[in-house]
Design brief:
Elements: H1 2-10, H2 12-20, H3 25-49, H4 53-84, H5 91-111, H6 113-124, H7 135-163, H8 170-192, H9 214-225
Helix pairs in contact: 1-2, 2-5, 2-7, 3-4, 3-5, 4-5, 4-8, 5-7, 6-7, 7-9
C-alpha cells in the first residue's frame, strides 16, 4: 500500500498508465479510495474543529460524503465527455483514473492540514475550539479552505492529464472535466453544509435549509473575507 501511495503522490504518470491499461486496478482503486476517505475526513475534522469538536465530528463525516457523491455523479459524465471528444476509455478505466486523481488531491489536503489548523489560531489569538470564532476569522477560514481545495484540484488535474493521449482535444476535455467536477462538488457541498457554522449561532444544525446556490456563496464569502458585508450578512454571513 505504501508503494501505491508513493506512486500516486510522486509518479502520477505511472498511476495514470495503470488506469488506462487496466493493470492491477483492484489494489490501486482500494488504496485510492482509502486515501481519499482518510484525506477528506482529516481535513473535515480540522475544518470543523476551527469552531468546536461537535462540528469537527460532523464535518469529518460530511466531507468524504461530498467527494463520494461527486465521483458517483461525475464519472458517467466524464465517460460521455471523453467519448464525444474522441478519447474514449472504458468506464472501468476512467472511474479508476478519476479516483486516483481524487486520491492525489486528498494527499495535498493532508499536506496542507497544518496551514488550516494554525491560521485560525494566529488570526484569533486563541487555541482551536477554545472560544467562539470571531466572524472575521470565520470568513477567512472558509475562504482559505476553498483555496486549499483549489490547490488540491490542480494536483488531481496532473493525473487526468497523463491519463489521456496528447491531442488537440486534451485541454478542452480537461476543461470540461474541471467544470463538471466543480459544479457537482460545489452544489453537493452546499447541500450538506454547514462545515464550520456561523459564529452568531450557539448551536449549529447538522444540515442547513436550502438558500441560494454555492456560486452566490463563493461571491459572498469573498466579500465577507475582505470586510464587505451587505444587509443579509448582518449576522456574520451565510455558509
Amino acid at each position: 500500500m505504501i508503494d501505491t501511495i508513493t506512486m500516486i503522490s510522486s509518479n502520477p504518470g505511472a498511476a495514470a498508465v495503470r488506469c488506462r491499461n487496466e493493470d492491477r486496478l483492484i489494489p490501486l482503486v482500494k488504496t485510492s479510495l482509502l486515501v481519499m476517505l482518510s484525506g477528506t475526513g482529516a481535513f473535515g475534522l480540522v475544518l470543523g474543529g476551527t469552531r468546536d469538536w461537535t462540528q469537527a465530528l460532523a464535518t469529518l463525516a460530511k466531507l468524504p460524503l461530498v467527494w463520494v457523491v461527486t465521483l458517483a455523479v461525475s464519472a458517467p459524465a466524464f465517460y460521455a465527455i471523453a467519448a464525444v471528444l474522441g478519447q474514449p476509455l472504458r468506464l472501468r478505466a476512467l472511474s479508476a483514473l478519476t479516483l486516483v486523481a481524487t486520491a492525489r488531491a486528498s494527499l495535498v489536503l493532508l499536506a496542507l492540514l497544518p496551514v488550516l489548523a494554525l491560521v485560525p489560531d494566529i488570526l484569533s489569538g486563541s487555541f482551536v475550539g477554545s472560544s467562539r470564532m470571531h466572524p472575521d476569522v470565520y470568513h477567512k477560514v472558509t475562504l482559505l479552505s476553498a483555496v486549499i481545495f483549489a490547490a488540491s484540484g490542480l494536483a488531481a488535474l496532473g493525473v487526468l492529464l497523463r491519463g489521456f493521449q496528447r491531442a488537440p482535444s486534451t485541454w478542452p476535455l480537461l476543461g470540461l472535466f474541471t467544470l463538471t467536477f466543480f459544479f457537482v462538488a460545489g452544489q453537493t457541498a452546499w447541500s450538506l453544509r454547514p462545515f464550520v457554522g456561523r459564529p452568531a449561532q450557539h448551536e449549529v444544525p447538522l444540515l442547513r435549509t436550502p438558500e441560494g446556490t454555492f456560486l452566490e456563496a463563493v461571491a459572498t464569502g469573498y466579500d465577507s473575507a475582505r470586510g464587505r458585508y451587505d444587509a443579509c450578512q448582518s449576522e456574520y454571513g451565510c455558509e
